[in-house]
Amino acid sequence: MVGAATAIGLAQLGLSIAVVESRQPQAYDPDQPIDVRVSAISVASENLLARLGALDSLWQMRSVPYRGLETWEMDGFITQFAAQQLNMSHLGHIVENRLVQLALWQQFCQYDNLHCYCPAKVARLVRATNGIEVSLDNGQVLDARLLVGADGANSMVRQWAGIGVTGWDYRQACMLINIATEADEQDVTWQQFTPKGPRSLLPLPGKNASLVWYDDAHTIRDLMQLSNKQLKQAIDQHFPERLDRNFEVVERGSFPLTRRHAKQYHKDHLVILGDAAHTINPLAGQGVNLGFKDVDALIQVIAAAQQSEHHWWSKPVLQQYQRKRWFDNQLMMTGMDLFYAGFSNDLLPLKLVRNVGLKLANYNNPVKQQVLKYALGLQ
Ligand SMILES: Cc1cc2nc3c(=O)[nH]c(=O)nc-3n(C[C@H](O)[C@H](O)[C@H](O)COP(=O)(O)OP(=O)(O)OC[C@H]3O[C@@H](n4cnc5c(N)ncnc54)[C@H](O)[C@@H]3O)c2cc1C
Protein backbone atom coordinates (compact mmCIF):
# COMPACT_ATOMS: atom_id res chain seq x y z
CA MET A 1 0.00 0.00 0.00
CA VAL A 2 2.66 2.50 1.07
CA GLY A 3 5.12 1.62 -1.70
CA ALA A 4 2.47 1.82 -4.43
CA ALA A 5 1.24 5.18 -3.14
CA THR A 6 4.79 6.59 -3.07
CA ALA A 7 5.42 5.32 -6.60
CA ILE A 8 2.38 7.15 -8.01
CA GLY A 9 3.09 10.34 -6.06
CA LEU A 10 6.66 10.47 -7.37
CA ALA A 11 5.58 9.50 -10.90
CA GLN A 12 3.22 12.50 -10.80
CA LEU A 13 6.34 14.63 -10.22
CA GLY A 14 7.80 13.31 -13.49
CA LEU A 15 10.44 11.02 -11.96
CA SER A 16 11.23 7.69 -13.54
CA ILE A 17 9.90 5.00 -11.19
CA ALA A 18 10.42 1.24 -10.81
CA VAL A 19 8.13 -0.66 -8.43
CA VAL A 20 9.45 -4.04 -7.28
CA GLU A 21 6.93 -6.33 -5.59
CA SER A 22 7.38 -10.00 -4.77
CA ARG A 23 3.68 -10.94 -4.54
CA GLN A 24 1.10 -10.28 -7.24
CA PRO A 25 -2.10 -9.17 -5.46
CA GLN A 26 -5.08 -11.36 -6.37
CA ALA A 27 -7.51 -9.56 -8.72
CA TYR A 28 -10.81 -8.40 -7.22
CA ASP A 29 -14.01 -10.37 -7.62
CA PRO A 30 -17.12 -9.27 -5.68
CA ASP A 31 -17.92 -12.93 -4.91
CA GLN A 32 -14.63 -13.41 -3.07
CA PRO A 33 -14.87 -13.77 0.70
CA ILE A 34 -13.65 -10.67 2.55
CA ASP A 35 -9.93 -10.81 3.43
CA VAL A 36 -8.98 -10.87 7.12
CA ARG A 37 -6.37 -8.15 6.59
CA VAL A 38 -8.44 -4.98 6.69
CA SER A 39 -7.54 -1.45 7.75
CA ALA A 40 -9.46 1.53 9.03
CA ILE A 41 -8.40 4.19 6.53
CA SER A 42 -8.71 7.73 7.88
CA VAL A 43 -10.14 10.72 6.03
CA ALA A 44 -6.59 12.08 5.60
CA SER A 45 -5.56 8.81 3.90
CA GLU A 46 -8.64 9.01 1.69
CA ASN A 47 -7.58 12.51 0.65
CA LEU A 48 -4.14 11.20 -0.34
CA LEU A 49 -5.65 8.28 -2.28
CA ALA A 50 -7.92 10.77 -4.08
CA ARG A 51 -4.93 12.92 -5.09
CA LEU A 52 -3.24 9.78 -6.40
CA GLY A 53 -6.35 8.97 -8.45
CA ALA A 54 -7.03 5.69 -6.62
CA LEU A 55 -10.07 6.54 -4.51
CA ASP A 56 -12.74 6.05 -7.18
CA SER A 57 -11.32 2.61 -8.07
CA LEU A 58 -11.39 1.71 -4.38
CA TRP A 59 -15.03 2.75 -3.97
CA GLN A 60 -15.92 0.67 -7.03
CA MET A 61 -14.71 -2.44 -5.20
CA ARG A 62 -15.95 -2.82 -1.60
CA SER A 63 -15.57 -0.84 1.61
CA VAL A 64 -17.72 0.43 4.43
CA PRO A 65 -17.75 3.91 5.98
CA TYR A 66 -17.60 4.20 9.76
CA ARG A 67 -19.28 7.17 11.40
CA GLY A 68 -18.70 6.41 15.06
CA LEU A 69 -15.86 5.20 17.24
CA GLU A 70 -16.57 4.04 20.81
CA THR A 71 -14.33 2.78 23.56
CA TRP A 72 -14.95 1.71 27.15
CA GLU A 73 -13.84 -0.60 29.91
CA MET A 74 -16.60 -0.60 32.53
CA ASP A 75 -20.20 -0.33 31.39
CA GLY A 76 -21.46 3.25 31.70
CA PHE A 77 -17.99 4.82 31.31
CA ILE A 78 -17.81 5.14 27.56
CA THR A 79 -16.08 7.58 25.20
CA GLN A 80 -17.88 8.09 21.91
CA PHE A 81 -16.58 9.93 18.89
CA ALA A 82 -18.95 10.72 16.04
CA ALA A 83 -18.46 12.20 12.59
CA GLN A 84 -21.12 14.86 13.34
CA GLN A 85 -18.87 16.29 16.08
CA LEU A 86 -16.61 17.53 13.26
CA ASN A 87 -19.46 18.15 10.83
CA MET A 88 -18.19 15.30 8.70
CA SER A 89 -20.16 12.59 6.90
CA HIS A 90 -17.85 9.82 8.15
CA LEU A 91 -14.61 9.24 10.08
CA GLY A 92 -13.07 6.89 7.55
CA HIS A 93 -13.62 3.58 5.77
CA ILE A 94 -12.80 -0.02 6.57
CA VAL A 95 -11.18 -1.60 3.53
CA GLU A 96 -9.28 -4.74 2.69
CA ASN A 97 -5.54 -4.04 2.45
CA ARG A 98 -5.38 -5.90 -0.86
CA LEU A 99 -8.05 -3.67 -2.39
CA VAL A 100 -6.15 -0.52 -1.42
CA GLN A 101 -3.11 -1.99 -3.13
CA LEU A 102 -5.16 -2.98 -6.22
CA ALA A 103 -6.79 0.46 -6.47
CA LEU A 104 -3.32 2.02 -6.48
CA TRP A 105 -1.96 -0.51 -8.94
CA GLN A 106 -4.79 0.26 -11.36
CA GLN A 107 -3.30 3.76 -11.63
CA PHE A 108 0.14 2.50 -12.69
CA CYS A 109 -0.88 2.28 -16.37
CA GLN A 110 -1.57 6.05 -16.38
CA TYR A 111 2.16 6.75 -16.13
CA ASP A 112 4.64 5.98 -18.94
CA ASN A 113 7.42 6.78 -16.46
CA LEU A 114 6.36 4.03 -14.01
CA HIS A 115 7.30 0.36 -14.51
CA CYS A 116 6.21 -2.46 -12.26
CA TYR A 117 8.40 -5.54 -11.76
CA CYS A 118 6.17 -8.23 -10.28
CA PRO A 119 6.58 -10.92 -9.17
CA ALA A 120 10.21 -10.01 -8.51
CA LYS A 121 12.19 -9.87 -5.34
CA VAL A 122 15.03 -7.56 -4.48
CA ALA A 123 17.90 -10.03 -4.25
CA ARG A 124 20.96 -7.79 -3.85
CA LEU A 125 21.77 -4.15 -3.24
CA VAL A 126 25.12 -2.51 -4.02
CA ARG A 127 26.18 1.09 -3.58
CA ALA A 128 27.19 2.73 -6.87
CA THR A 129 28.89 6.10 -7.48
CA ASN A 130 25.70 8.11 -7.62
CA GLY A 131 22.98 5.83 -6.32
CA ILE A 132 22.17 2.22 -5.54
CA GLU A 133 22.27 -0.78 -7.86
CA VAL A 134 19.25 -3.03 -7.27
CA SER A 135 19.50 -6.65 -8.52
CA LEU A 136 16.25 -8.58 -8.80
CA ASP A 137 15.92 -12.34 -8.42
CA ASN A 138 14.95 -12.58 -12.12
CA GLY A 139 18.40 -11.29 -13.12
CA GLN A 140 17.36 -7.71 -13.97
CA VAL A 141 19.43 -4.85 -12.58
CA LEU A 142 18.05 -1.36 -11.87
CA ASP A 143 20.04 1.80 -11.13
CA ALA A 144 18.32 4.00 -8.58
CA ARG A 145 19.14 7.56 -7.60
CA LEU A 146 16.88 6.98 -4.62
CA LEU A 147 15.87 3.61 -3.21
CA VAL A 148 12.54 3.82 -1.38
CA GLY A 149 12.21 1.02 1.16
CA ALA A 150 8.48 0.45 1.67
CA ASP A 151 9.03 -3.26 2.16
CA GLY A 152 7.20 -3.78 5.43
CA ALA A 153 8.07 -4.51 9.04
CA ASN A 154 10.98 -6.85 8.24
CA SER A 155 12.39 -4.41 5.71
CA MET A 156 15.38 -5.81 3.87
CA VAL A 157 16.24 -2.28 2.72
CA ARG A 158 16.38 -1.00 6.30
CA GLN A 159 18.55 -3.91 7.42
CA TRP A 160 20.88 -3.63 4.43
CA ALA A 161 21.35 0.08 5.13
CA GLY A 162 22.27 -0.75 8.73
CA ILE A 163 19.51 1.45 10.13
CA GLY A 164 18.89 0.37 13.71
CA VAL A 165 15.50 0.14 15.40
CA THR A 166 14.21 0.58 18.91
CA GLY A 167 11.32 -1.58 19.98
CA TRP A 168 10.01 -4.69 21.65
CA ASP A 169 7.51 -7.50 21.30
CA TYR A 170 4.41 -6.97 23.43
CA ARG A 171 4.17 -10.70 24.31
CA GLN A 172 0.66 -10.41 23.00
CA ALA A 173 -0.93 -11.40 19.75
CA CYS A 174 -4.12 -10.45 18.09
CA MET A 175 -6.63 -12.47 16.19
CA LEU A 176 -8.74 -11.08 13.38
CA ILE A 177 -12.00 -12.95 12.92
CA ASN A 178 -14.40 -12.26 10.05
CA ILE A 179 -18.00 -13.00 10.98
CA ALA A 180 -21.25 -13.09 9.02
CA THR A 181 -23.89 -11.24 11.03
CA GLU A 182 -27.66 -11.38 11.07
CA ALA A 183 -27.72 -7.63 11.76
CA ASP A 184 -27.48 -5.22 8.81
CA GLU A 185 -24.29 -3.38 7.85
CA GLN A 186 -22.94 -1.43 10.83
CA ASP A 187 -21.21 1.95 10.92
CA VAL A 188 -19.68 2.16 14.39
CA THR A 189 -16.36 0.63 15.34
CA TRP A 190 -16.08 -0.20 19.05
CA GLN A 191 -13.51 -1.49 21.47
CA GLN A 192 -13.78 -2.71 25.05
CA PHE A 193 -10.62 -2.83 27.16
CA THR A 194 -10.01 -5.82 29.40
CA PRO A 195 -6.84 -6.48 31.45
CA LYS A 196 -6.00 -9.27 28.94
CA GLY A 197 -6.32 -6.88 25.99
CA PRO A 198 -9.02 -5.15 23.96
CA ARG A 199 -11.97 -6.81 22.23
CA SER A 200 -13.10 -4.86 19.19
CA LEU A 201 -15.48 -4.83 16.29
CA LEU A 202 -14.88 -3.23 12.91
CA PRO A 203 -17.83 -3.09 10.51
CA LEU A 204 -17.33 -4.83 7.15
CA PRO A 205 -19.39 -4.36 3.98
CA GLY A 206 -22.87 -5.90 4.08
CA LYS A 207 -23.85 -8.22 6.88
CA ASN A 208 -20.28 -8.79 7.98
CA ALA A 209 -17.89 -7.61 10.65
CA SER A 210 -14.31 -8.11 11.78
CA LEU A 211 -13.72 -8.99 15.43
CA VAL A 212 -10.31 -8.26 16.90
CA TRP A 213 -9.26 -10.28 19.94
CA TYR A 214 -6.04 -9.27 21.74
CA ASP A 215 -4.63 -11.72 24.24
CA ASP A 216 -1.42 -13.41 25.30
CA ALA A 217 0.28 -15.30 22.49
CA HIS A 218 -0.53 -18.77 23.97
CA THR A 219 -4.23 -18.03 24.20
CA ILE A 220 -4.34 -16.77 20.62
CA ARG A 221 -2.44 -19.88 19.46
CA ASP A 222 -5.03 -22.08 21.22
CA LEU A 223 -7.94 -20.09 19.78
CA MET A 224 -6.52 -20.51 16.28
CA GLN A 225 -6.83 -24.31 16.69
CA LEU A 226 -10.58 -24.21 17.41
CA SER A 227 -13.24 -25.11 14.86
CA ASN A 228 -15.47 -22.24 13.73
CA LYS A 229 -18.22 -23.49 16.05
CA GLN A 230 -15.89 -23.70 19.07
CA LEU A 231 -14.45 -20.28 18.28
CA LYS A 232 -17.94 -18.81 18.22
CA GLN A 233 -18.57 -20.24 21.71
CA ALA A 234 -15.32 -18.68 22.96
CA ILE A 235 -16.30 -15.32 21.43
CA ASP A 236 -19.74 -15.57 23.05
CA GLN A 237 -18.02 -16.01 26.42
CA HIS A 238 -15.34 -13.34 26.10
CA PHE A 239 -16.81 -10.50 24.02
CA PRO A 240 -18.99 -7.78 25.55
CA GLU A 241 -22.78 -7.95 25.43
CA ARG A 242 -22.69 -5.22 22.82
CA LEU A 243 -21.90 -7.93 20.24
CA ASP A 244 -25.07 -9.37 18.72
CA ARG A 245 -24.68 -13.14 19.25
CA ASN A 246 -26.44 -13.99 15.98
CA PHE A 247 -23.34 -14.51 13.85
CA GLU A 248 -21.18 -17.20 12.29
CA VAL A 249 -17.40 -17.34 12.15
CA VAL A 250 -16.17 -17.23 8.55
CA GLU A 251 -12.41 -16.70 8.58
CA ARG A 252 -9.60 -15.96 11.02
CA GLY A 253 -5.92 -14.98 11.12
CA SER A 254 -3.44 -14.12 13.87
CA PHE A 255 -0.63 -11.59 14.13
CA PRO A 256 2.08 -10.97 16.74
CA LEU A 257 2.14 -7.49 18.29
CA THR A 258 5.41 -5.69 17.88
CA ARG A 259 6.70 -2.17 18.18
CA ARG A 260 9.63 -1.04 16.06
CA HIS A 261 10.83 2.42 15.26
CA ALA A 262 13.79 3.06 12.98
CA LYS A 263 16.37 5.38 14.51
CA GLN A 264 16.56 7.28 11.24
CA TYR A 265 14.54 7.27 8.04
CA HIS A 266 17.29 7.87 5.50
CA LYS A 267 20.87 7.14 4.44
CA ASP A 268 22.69 8.18 1.27
CA HIS A 269 20.35 7.64 -1.70
CA LEU A 270 17.91 5.67 0.46
CA VAL A 271 14.76 6.38 2.40
CA ILE A 272 12.29 4.19 4.33
CA LEU A 273 8.56 4.65 4.83
CA GLY A 274 5.53 2.88 6.29
CA ASP A 275 6.02 -0.28 8.31
CA ALA A 276 9.65 -0.42 7.16
CA ALA A 277 10.17 2.67 9.35
CA HIS A 278 7.65 2.02 12.14
CA THR A 279 5.42 -0.82 13.33
CA ILE A 280 2.81 0.34 15.80
CA ASN A 281 0.40 -1.48 18.09
CA PRO A 282 -2.72 -1.90 15.90
CA LEU A 283 -4.91 -0.87 18.87
CA ALA A 284 -6.11 2.37 17.27
CA GLY A 285 -5.80 1.32 13.64
CA GLN A 286 -3.11 3.87 12.82
CA GLY A 287 -0.42 1.79 11.05
CA VAL A 288 -1.06 2.40 7.39
CA ASN A 289 -2.46 5.87 8.11
CA LEU A 290 0.95 6.86 9.50
CA GLY A 291 2.53 5.25 6.44
CA PHE A 292 0.36 7.37 4.14
CA LYS A 293 1.40 10.48 6.08
CA ASP A 294 5.02 9.50 5.37
CA VAL A 295 4.16 9.23 1.66
CA ASP A 296 2.56 12.66 1.68
CA ALA A 297 5.61 14.19 3.41
CA LEU A 298 8.12 12.58 1.04
CA ILE A 299 6.20 13.74 -2.02
CA GLN A 300 6.04 17.28 -0.60
CA VAL A 301 9.76 17.58 0.15
CA ILE A 302 10.78 16.11 -3.20
CA ALA A 303 8.36 18.41 -5.05
CA ALA A 304 9.81 21.39 -3.19
CA ALA A 305 13.39 20.26 -3.96
CA GLN A 306 12.61 20.12 -7.68
CA GLN A 307 11.92 23.87 -7.45
CA SER A 308 15.10 24.58 -5.45
CA GLU A 309 18.87 24.29 -5.82
CA HIS A 310 18.98 20.93 -3.97
CA HIS A 311 19.04 17.63 -5.83
CA TRP A 312 15.74 15.93 -4.98
CA TRP A 313 17.59 12.85 -3.68
CA SER A 314 20.12 14.77 -1.59
CA LYS A 315 20.66 14.48 2.15
CA PRO A 316 19.07 17.86 3.13
CA VAL A 317 15.88 16.85 1.31
CA LEU A 318 15.71 13.44 2.99
CA GLN A 319 16.47 15.09 6.33
CA GLN A 320 13.45 17.33 5.83
CA TYR A 321 11.29 14.27 5.27
CA GLN A 322 12.59 12.73 8.50
CA ARG A 323 11.99 15.96 10.42
CA LYS A 324 8.40 16.06 9.21
CA ARG A 325 7.64 12.48 10.17
CA TRP A 326 9.86 10.97 12.89
CA PHE A 327 8.51 12.90 15.86
CA ASP A 328 4.88 12.59 14.76
CA ASN A 329 5.25 8.82 14.40
CA GLN A 330 7.04 8.59 17.77
CA LEU A 331 4.26 10.57 19.45
CA MET A 332 1.53 8.31 18.10
CA MET A 333 3.46 5.14 19.01
CA THR A 334 4.13 6.35 22.54
CA GLY A 335 0.53 7.46 22.96
CA MET A 336 -0.68 4.00 21.95
CA ASP A 337 1.78 2.36 24.34
CA LEU A 338 0.66 4.50 27.28
CA PHE A 339 -2.95 3.72 26.50
CA TYR A 340 -2.19 0.03 26.18
CA ALA A 341 -0.15 -0.16 29.38
CA GLY A 342 -2.70 1.96 31.26
CA PHE A 343 -5.46 -0.53 30.53
CA SER A 344 -3.44 -3.74 30.93
CA ASN A 345 -3.99 -4.22 34.66
CA ASP A 346 -6.83 -4.81 37.06
CA LEU A 347 -5.75 -2.59 39.98
CA LEU A 348 -8.93 -1.02 41.37
CA PRO A 349 -7.65 2.57 41.95
CA LEU A 350 -6.18 2.71 38.44
CA LYS A 351 -9.33 1.19 37.00
CA LEU A 352 -11.46 3.89 38.62
CA VAL A 353 -9.16 6.69 37.44
CA ARG A 354 -9.07 5.51 33.83
CA ASN A 355 -12.82 4.92 33.69
CA VAL A 356 -13.57 8.35 35.10
CA GLY A 357 -11.06 9.62 32.49
CA LEU A 358 -13.02 7.89 29.70
CA LYS A 359 -16.27 9.33 31.04
CA LEU A 360 -14.82 12.87 31.20
CA ALA A 361 -13.30 12.45 27.74
CA ASN A 362 -16.80 11.85 26.45
CA TYR A 363 -17.96 15.44 27.02
CA ASN A 364 -17.97 17.27 23.73
CA ASN A 365 -15.39 20.02 24.03
CA PRO A 366 -12.58 21.51 21.91
CA VAL A 367 -10.00 19.08 23.38
CA LYS A 368 -12.09 16.11 22.30
CA GLN A 369 -12.42 17.58 18.82
CA GLN A 370 -8.64 18.09 18.61
CA VAL A 371 -8.00 14.48 19.67
CA LEU A 372 -10.41 13.26 17.02
CA LYS A 373 -8.83 15.44 14.34
CA TYR A 374 -5.38 14.13 15.29
CA ALA A 375 -6.56 10.51 15.12
CA LEU A 376 -8.04 11.18 11.68
CA GLY A 377 -4.75 12.65 10.48
CA LEU A 378 -6.38 16.04 9.89
CA GLN A 379 -3.66 17.92 11.77
C1 LIG B 1 -3.76 -7.13 13.17
C2 LIG B 1 -3.45 -5.84 12.49
C3 LIG B 1 -4.46 -4.90 12.27
C4 LIG B 1 -4.19 -3.67 11.67
N1 LIG B 1 -5.18 -2.76 11.50
C5 LIG B 1 -4.90 -1.55 10.96
C6 LIG B 1 -5.90 -0.55 10.78
O1 LIG B 1 -7.07 -0.72 11.13
N2 LIG B 1 -5.54 0.65 10.25
C7 LIG B 1 -4.25 0.90 9.87
O2 LIG B 1 -3.96 2.01 9.40
N3 LIG B 1 -3.29 -0.04 9.99
C8 LIG B 1 -3.57 -1.24 10.53
N4 LIG B 1 -2.60 -2.18 10.66
C9 LIG B 1 -1.25 -1.88 10.18
C10 LIG B 1 -1.16 -2.03 8.66
O3 LIG B 1 -1.58 -3.32 8.27
C11 LIG B 1 0.29 -1.81 8.25
O4 LIG B 1 0.73 -0.58 8.78
C12 LIG B 1 0.41 -1.78 6.72
O5 LIG B 1 0.12 -3.03 6.18
C13 LIG B 1 1.82 -1.39 6.32
O6 LIG B 1 1.85 -1.19 4.94
P1 LIG B 1 3.23 -1.15 4.17
O7 LIG B 1 2.86 -0.94 2.73
O8 LIG B 1 4.16 -0.21 4.84
O9 LIG B 1 3.89 -2.59 4.38
P2 LIG B 1 3.34 -4.04 3.91
O10 LIG B 1 1.86 -4.06 3.83
O11 LIG B 1 4.01 -5.04 4.81
O12 LIG B 1 3.92 -4.16 2.45
C14 LIG B 1 5.30 -4.43 2.16
C15 LIG B 1 5.37 -4.98 0.73
O13 LIG B 1 6.74 -5.17 0.37
C16 LIG B 1 6.88 -6.41 -0.33
N5 LIG B 1 8.28 -6.86 -0.13
C17 LIG B 1 8.89 -7.09 1.05
N6 LIG B 1 10.17 -7.46 0.85
C18 LIG B 1 10.38 -7.46 -0.51
C19 LIG B 1 11.51 -7.76 -1.34
N7 LIG B 1 12.71 -8.12 -0.85
N8 LIG B 1 11.35 -7.64 -2.69
C20 LIG B 1 10.14 -7.26 -3.22
N9 LIG B 1 9.04 -6.98 -2.48
C21 LIG B 1 9.17 -7.08 -1.14
C22 LIG B 1 5.83 -7.31 0.31
O14 LIG B 1 5.45 -8.35 -0.58
C23 LIG B 1 4.68 -6.33 0.59
O15 LIG B 1 3.77 -6.26 -0.48
C24 LIG B 1 -2.86 -3.40 11.26
C25 LIG B 1 -1.85 -4.35 11.43
C26 LIG B 1 -2.14 -5.56 12.06
C27 LIG B 1 -1.04 -6.57 12.27
Automatic annotation (TrEMBL):
UniProt family annotation: Belongs to the UbiH/COQ6 family.
Signal peptide limits: none
Molecular function terms from GO: monooxygenase activity
UniProt entry keywords in alphabetical sequence: FAD, Flavoprotein, Monooxygenase, Oxidoreductase
Cofactor(s) needed by this chain: FAD
Pathway(s): Cofactor biosynthesis; ubiquinone biosynthesis
Boundaries of every FAD-binding domain copy: 137-325
Protein name: FAD-dependent monooxygenase
Cross-referenced SUPFAM superfamilies: FAD/NAD(P)-binding domain (SSF51905)
Superkingdom of origin: Bacteria
